[in-house]
Write a structure and sequence with these properties.
This protein is α/β, with parallel strands linked by helices and about 325 residues long. The chain contains eleven helices and 13 strands. Strands 1, 4, 5, 6, 7, 8, 9, 10, 11, 12 and 13 form an eleven-stranded mixed sheet that branches. It has a two-stranded antiparallel sheet with strand order 2-3. Strand 10, helix 10 and strand 11 form a beta-alpha-beta unit. Helix 1 runs parallel beside helix 3. The longest helix is centred in the N-terminal third of the chain and has 18 residues. The N and C termini lie far apart (about 45 Å). The relative contact order is 0.18.
Length: about 325
């Protein structure tokens, strides 16, 4: 098939609960950004987003709980202790965390996630989840972005009140990270086998990654039953090994979003872009992220503010320009 024929084929089949074959995903990822075919790809993905989401968009709110050196030393992460970027450690205390969760909930954020470095106490997080549930009412869902764990721990986290886990097999896992890919996959399986829901983005996308690598991870998000897929760009952090490489363009990120939208179809109706851009939303993303606290994609800790001043109001503005309305739950308007 030509590229335009494949785009039409993918759009026609996107409402089915099946993924595109790997070879077709790679072909769509090979389209030249900012070409006429690229524009056609984005338009098709946006039409599919309309059909699958009814133009409902959602916000993801992340709280980086601890700003501390991490011994895993991922080549793209500012928190790696080898890079010497983090000079002083900080952590959100209980009240600050409650205040931020409350702010997100009142702003209409659907998914609120506490993010920690690899070895932060999971038991302490369980206690924190129970405290949040007792003190912050609302229709939000709460999740964790933490280290590795097994099925028993997954079931325990669900019993504590955790709704979902953000976890991924990262691009370059085992090469640009010190993690064993098999261990990462084991944690993904534990989430799948538990009551927890999974959010799994294709990330962190850099100019160093191939279409084949991106296609494989897109398919993996569906294989492990993610409720949200999508993609996150690798942000070049000065002082990290990968910080010397440029950031992927917004046009390329929008293309990746469009391809994941078409590749996963009805299997994963909610597709996330981070950092959020109106272009990616116009190419099919209906979820984006706002962040505070420790940011592994920057050299700072945003205490109280939002990363790059990208807050709920700004995200809603971009979604509105792209033809969406932001809701807090899947069932009713905020």
């Amino acid at each position: 098939m030509t590229n335009l024929e494949l785009i039409a084929y993918a759009e026609a089949h996107a409402e089915k609960h099946e993924t595109l074959p790997r070879e077709q995903i790679i072909q769509l990822l090979s389209i030249e950004p900012e070409s006429e075919e690229w524009a056609a790809l984005g338009a098709a993905a946006r039409r599919v987003a309309h059909k699958l989401t009814h133009d409902r968009a959602y916000l993801w709110g992340a709280i980086g709980v601890d700003y501390a050196p991490c011994s895993m030393n991922c080549d793209f992460c500012s928190l790696g202790e080898k890079w010497g970027i983090v000079k002083q450690t900080r952590a959100y205390d209980e009240q600050a965390t409650l205040d931020q969760v409350r702010e997100y909930a009142q702003a209409g954020v659907r998914w609120i996630v506490l993010r920690t470095t690899e070895f932060y106490s999971q038991d302490a997080l369980g206690d924190m989840i129970r405290t949040i549930r007792a003190n912050v009412p609302g229709d939000y869902e709460i999740g964790l972005n933490i280290g590795e764990f097994d099925l028993a721990k997954a079931n325990w986290l669900a019993a504590c009140g955790v709704n979902f886990i953000y976890h991924s097999l990262r691009l370059g896992e085992g090469r640009d990270t010190r993690f064993d890919p098999k261990v990462r996959l084991s944690t993904l399986q534990a989430v799948k086998d538990s009551p927890l829901k999974l959010v799994f983005l294709v990330e962190p996308v850099g100019v160093e990654h191939t279409n084949e690598e991106i296609a494989d991870l897109a398919l993996l998000t569906a294989q492990y039953g993610a409720i949200v897929s999508g993609s996150m760009a690798r942000i070049p952090v000065p002082g990290t090994p990968l910080g010397v490489h440029p950031q992927v363009s917004d046009a390329r990120m929008a293309q990746i979003i469009a391809v994941i939208r078409l590749a996963c179809g009805a299997c994963i109706p909610d597709i996330c872009i981070h950092p959020g851009t109106q272009l990616a939303m116009e190419f099919g993303a209906n979820v984006t992220v706002i962040e505070t606290g420790s940011i592994p994609r920057d050299t700072c800790c945003c205490s109280g503010g939002k990363w790059h001043q990208f807050d709920a109001s700004r995200a809603k503005e971009l979604f509105a320009k792209a033809g969406y309305t932001v809701y807090q739950t899947a069932g009713q308007a905020q």
